[in-house]
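Page 47, continued from p. 46.
Same chain as before, 216 aa.
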Amino acid sequence: MNNSQQRGTDVPRGPRGTDRSLARRAELIATGRKLFANTSYDALSMDDIARHAGVAKGLIYYYFKNKRGYYLAIVRESVEELVVRASSTADLPRAERVHRTVDGYLRYAQHNQAAYRTIVSGGVGFDAEVHAVRDAVREELLAAIAEGAYGHRDLPVVARTALVGWLSCVEGVTLDWLGHQGLERDVVRSLLVRMLRDTLLAIQDFDPSCPAPVTE
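Result:
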């Protein structure tokens, strides 16, 4: 690896940080998302990635430093899509907002299985950066559910604790569903929404300041 490869950054600086450079970086991430969508991190070498991208391996080093940097950029991009899917329901009635949030989450997981597993499991081994990304996703999803259920993002301690438990259940159910594919997505969505409804009723029992929304 030459010096320029070793000190490569996510986005080239100076005169090379042009629209063309940004477009090329976006193309590399798009290629990587397809490659890693259902292929594990260890199964792809930098040579494999460069061949699929149709570029010299050094270009990937230049933009992302190394394979891990490239992978983290792809995970962050995937996370942004997942959060957008979960949060793009602001104009809907609250009950429909919750349904759409859960459905968007499941759609993302179904079509980006390897990336989803990475986000939920925390990456390759113990990867502090991927764990931070995962935690950020969980916080945004909790906020999206709180907005849909209560009309605001602030959660009392009891509500937050209960919803964290529900979200952990969502992750476990989704991983099992991806592994077995024994149910239609609509069934899984309905199951998770029903479990959320029960969780919201339990929150109401413990904290009347958080009334469960009317779903009919």
